[in-house]
Write a sequence for this structure.
C-alpha cells in the first residue's frame, strides 16, 4: 500500500477491529495474510522472540488468574503484525504529507514534523542499539542483563542530546510553529482494494457487536 | 601474526565492496572517500559485520578490538573514573594522558564529543592488544589532539594497527597504505614505495612529490624534511 493516507487509515481501522474481538482479529489476520503478503516487514528472530514472548507472557498470566488470556494473546499478536506492516512500509515524509493533508499548514505541519522526527529517531535507535551492543561485546560484555544499564543510559542521553540539537537547529532556522508544505502521495492499483477491505472488516465487527447486543 | 581478508564481499542492499588482502604486523592506513565502505570493512575485520561471501582469518591474533567512530557507543562507566576503570587502567595516569586531569568525577556522557573521543582512544590504546582497528580515530579532534593520538599509535606496543580514515592533515607513521577504490580494497604497498601510487594522498605529500621530493613517510614533517633534503 503506497498511499500514506490509506495506510494510516487502514492501520487505525484494522487495529481497532483486531483488538475489539476475536472475530475481528481473525478477519484482520486474513487481511494480513492476503494484502500484506510481501510487505510484512517482520523484525529479526531475536526481536520477534522478545515482542511475542512478552505478549505470550502477559496472556499466560491473564489466563492463569481467570482472565481471557488466549483471546488477549491472539488479538494483540494480530495488532502487532499490523504494526510491523504499517511501520515497515512507511517512507520518509509519509506522516508529514498525511498530517498536512488532514489538518493543514499550521497544526498539521507541527504534528507531521513531530511525528517524522519521532519515527526517524526510532529508526536511528535501531542502529544505535546494534552498534552499542557490538561495542560492548568488543569491550568484554558481562552478559546481556548487565549490559542493559550502559545500553539504556547511553541511548537515553544520546536521544536527549539529539533532541536538543534538533531543537536548536529548528530555532536557528526560524521555526516558530506551522509552515508551508505541499503534500504529495503515491498510489498503487491495490491501495483502494486494501483500504476498502479494511472498512468492510470494521463494519463486519460493528455488525457482529450489534447482533450480539 | 596477521589478519587475512580472503575473497571478502560486503554488501548493503545494492552496494557491495570486495576486499582481498593480508594485514601483517605494522601500521596499515586504509583511506577512501566518505561512504566508500571504510566503516563496513572495519566492522567486518573486527567480526561484527557478516560478509556476504569470503572469510576473515586471524592468525596469531588473540586479543583484538575496534574503535568505532562514535565514542559514546563504548561507554560503560557512569563517571569518567568508572569508564577508565572499565578498561582496567589507572585513573590518574589515564586522565593525564588524555588531558582531562581533575575531571574524574564528571559524568562520562556529559563530556564533549572531542573529549570523549580523547578519553576513549587513550583507554583503548592504553591496553594491550594483538590487533587494533581504528575507525576514523581523528574525527572530531583538533590538530593538537590528532597529534597526541598519532604519538600514542606510534609509541604503542600493538603489533598490528589498521587505521581507517579520510584525514588529510595529521597522520601517524605508517608501514602500509591501502585504498578503497571503485568498490574494492586496493593495496598500494609498503611505505615509502607506496606513496607515489597513493591516489588519496594528502595535498602536502603530492605537492612535495611534484617538487621532486621523496618523503620517507606520510606525515607533514616527512614531506617537509624531504623538501629540505632537496635544498641542502
Amino acid at each position: 500500500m503506497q498511499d500514506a493516507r490509506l495506510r494510516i487509515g487502514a492501520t487505525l481501522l484494522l487495529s481497532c477491529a483486531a483488538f475489539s474481538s476475536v472475530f475481528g482479529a481473525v478477519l484482520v489476520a486474513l487481511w494480513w495474510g492476503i494484502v500484506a503478503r510481501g510487505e510484512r516487514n517482520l523484525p529479526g528472530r531475536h526481536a520477534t522472540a522478545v515482542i511475542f514472548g512478552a505478549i505470550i507472557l502477559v496472556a499466560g498470566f491473564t489466563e492463569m488468574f481467570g482472565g481471557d488470556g488466549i483471546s488477549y494473546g491472539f488479538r494483540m499478536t494480530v495488532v502487532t503484525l499490523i504494526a510491523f506492516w504499517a511501520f515497515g512500509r512507511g517512507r520518509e515524509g509519509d506522516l508529514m504529507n498525511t498530517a498536512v493533508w488532514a489538518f493543514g499548514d499550521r497544526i498539521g505541519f507541527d504534528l507531521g514534523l513531530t511525528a517524522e522526527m519521532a519515527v526517524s529517531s526510532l529508526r536511528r535507535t535501531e542502529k544505535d542499539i546494534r552498534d552499542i551492543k557490538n561495542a560492548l561485546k568488543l569491550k568484554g560484555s558481562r552478559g546481556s542483563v548487565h549490559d542493559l544499564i550502559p545500553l539504556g543510559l547511553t541511548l537515553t542521553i544520546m536521544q536527549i542530546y539529539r533532541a536538543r540539537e534538533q531543537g536548536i537547529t529548528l530555532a536557528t532556522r526560524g521555526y516558530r510553529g506551522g509552515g508551508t508544505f505541499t503534500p504529495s502521495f503515491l498510489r498503487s492499483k491495490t491501495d483502494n482494494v486494501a483500504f476498502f477491505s479494511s472498512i468492510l472488516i470494521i463494519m463486519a465487527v460493528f455488525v457482529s457487536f450489534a447482533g450480539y447486543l | 601474526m596477521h589478519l587475512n581478508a580472503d575473497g571478502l564481499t560486503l554488501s548493503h542492499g545494492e552496494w557491495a565492496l570486495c576486499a582481498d588482502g593480508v594485514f601483517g604486523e605494522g601500521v596499515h592506513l586504509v583511506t577512501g572517500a566518505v561512504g566508500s565502505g571504510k566503516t563496513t570493512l572495519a566492522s567486518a575485520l573486527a567480526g561484527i559485520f557478516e560478509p556476504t561471501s569470503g572469510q576473515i582469518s586471524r592468525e596469531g591474533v588473540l586479543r583484538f578490538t575496534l574503535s568505532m567512530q562514535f565514542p559514546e557507543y563504548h561507554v560503560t562507566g557512569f563517571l569518567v573514573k568508572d569508564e577508565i576503570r572499565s578498561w582496567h587502567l589507572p585513573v590518574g595516569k589515564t586522565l593525564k594522558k588524555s588531558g582531562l586531569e581533575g575531571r574524574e568525577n564528571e559524568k562520562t556522557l556529559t563530556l564533549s564529543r572531542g573529549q570523549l573521543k580523547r578519553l576513549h582512544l587513550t583507554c583503548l590504546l592504553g591496553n594491550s592488544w594483538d590487533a587494533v582497528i581504528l575507525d576514523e580515530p581523528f574525527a572530531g579532534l583538533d590538530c593538537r589532539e590528532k597529534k597526541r593520538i598519532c604519538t600514542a599509535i606510534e609509541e604503542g606496543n600493538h603489533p598490528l594497527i589498521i587505521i581507517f580514515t579520510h584525514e588529510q592533515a595529521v597522520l601517524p607513521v605508517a608501514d602500509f597504505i591501502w585504498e578503497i577504490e571503485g568498490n574494492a580494497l586496493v593495496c598500494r604497498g609498503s611505505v615509502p614505495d607506496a606513496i607515489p601510487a597513493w591516489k588519496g594522498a594528502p595535498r602536502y605529500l603530492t605537492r612535495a612529490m611534484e617538487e621532486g621530493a621523496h618523503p620517507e613517510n606520510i606525515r607533514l614533517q616527512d614531506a617537509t624534511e624531504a623538501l629540505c633534503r632537496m635544498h641542502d
